[in-house]
């Protein structure tokens, strides 16, 4: 199974965004510490998801980074991604593991120790935990859990915990102190004036 980078970049495919430009900016800076999670909007077609994921896989391969596909595991298999990530409304973790196979990286979403333990028992390689704080990059999210919520999950499982939800570089020290292995971001990079510099700032905070 590939090693897991500490910085997860989730593609922002909302109107007016250029996810490939952000990926291209971040990869030379973070390299193997970067995991690119290809996430598309619900109304995107499988073909659109495939076309984006195929290009991201190729970019990641040049820099030793990991590419995962969120939600659409058939797309992950089709493009040769290292694995996928499933949320609460996607395939159950055990079923996702069966689809991807034992060697793939499989992330699962959790927000409390109970669901976290269940996900790990079912085969999750790591957990995306949050939302850390309210965010507008995804609709229908539950209430924020804060540092305390991240800590509660991190101390209850043995797999890496990736904090997500409105995370900035300034938040990283507190999240790392709470037991988070890394962080996942959308807006912190997709809305940055200089995504490469923002990547460097996040990475510095994560590796200090």
Automatic annotation (TrEMBL):
Pathway in which the depicted protein is active: Cofactor biosynthesis; thiamine diphosphate biosynthesis; thiamine phosphate from 4-amino-2-methyl-5-diphosphomethylpyrimidine and 4-methyl-5-(2-phosphoethyl)-thiazole: step 1/1
InterPro entries: Aldolase_TIM, ThiamineP_synth_sf, ThiamineP_synth_TenI, TMP_synthase
Pfam families, sorted: TMP-TENI (PF02581)
Keyword Cytoplasm (UniProt): no
Molecular function, one GO term: thiamine-phosphate diphosphorylase activity
Binding site for Mg(2+): 71, 90
Cofactor(s) listed: Mg(2+)
Free-text remark on how the cofactor is bound: Binds 1 Mg(2+) ion per subunit.
EC number: 2.5.1.3
Keywords linked to the UniProt accession: Magnesium, Metal-binding, Thiamine biosynthesis, Transferase
Catalytic activity, reaction form: 2-(2-carboxy-4-methylthiazol-5-yl)ethyl phosphate + 4-amino-2-methyl-5-(diphosphooxymethyl)pyrimidine + 2 H(+) = thiamine phosphate + CO2 + diphosphate; 2-[(2R,5Z)-2-carboxy-4-methylthiazol-5(2H)-ylidene]ethyl phosphate + 4-amino-2-methyl-5-(diphosphooxymethyl)pyrimidine + 2 H(+) = thiamine phosphate + CO2 + diphosphate; 4-methyl-5-(2-phosphooxyethyl)-thiazole + 4-amino-2-methyl-5-(diphosphooxymethyl)pyrimidine + H(+) = thiamine phosphate + diphosphate
Residue ranges annotated for the Thiamine phosphate synthase/TenI domain, each copy included: 7-189
Residues given in the record as 2-[(2R,5Z)-2-carboxy-4-methylthiazol-5(2H)-ylidene]ethyl phosphate binding sites: 135-137, 166
NCBIfam families: thiE
Role noted for this protein: Condenses 4-methyl-5-(beta-hydroxyethyl)thiazole monophosphate (THZ-P) and 2-methyl-4-amino-5-hydroxymethyl pyrimidine pyrophosphate (HMP-PP) to form thiamine monophosphate (TMP).
Record protein name field: Thiamine-phosphate synthase
Phylogenetic placement of the source organism: Bacteria, Bacillati, Actinomycetota, Actinomycetes, Micromonosporales
